[in-house]
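Most newcomers find our protein records easier to grasp once they have seen one. The structure tokens are whole numbers drawn from a learned vocabulary of backbone shapes. The record below serves as our worked example for the rest of this section.
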Amino acid sequence: MSRNEKELDGVTLLGNQNTQYNYDYNPDVLETFENKHPENEYIVTLDCPEFTSLCPKTGQPDFGHIIINYIPRVRMVESKSLKLYLFSFRNHGDFHEDCVNIIMKDLVKLMDPKYLEVIGLFNPRGGISIKPFANYGDKDHQDMVKQRLLANFHQK
């Protein structure tokens, strides 16, 4: 059940040896491909341990780990385009909470998933770690939205 050329239309970055890296926020780099199993409800996890952005006030670099979980509908995000998209935050000045919400909204707009969540695990600055969580669900996944939101309250 290999993918044919028609199913790979729109996937232009994968295998491209002339990759251009955007150093400023650029959601236009995101690409999708068709979900060949829309009848199945399954989770895709994308683990991005090298996320960087800039503090909007000081311009100092912030380092974090972004985890994206989603239940696809018809379209799925292509991983190289996601890598380039996340790299485009490198010179983007925003708070951690903003970055996580921007990523979530861009991916929801791109794919129209059944459910999607973005978790940010940012390295401490000034002795404080920030761990924002944002999620989205269609009308059939509203219980999951609430359950996952409550489950992500950190306790120690």
Observations:
- The domain at 21-150 is CATH 3.30.1130.10 (GTP Cyclohydrolase I, domain 2).
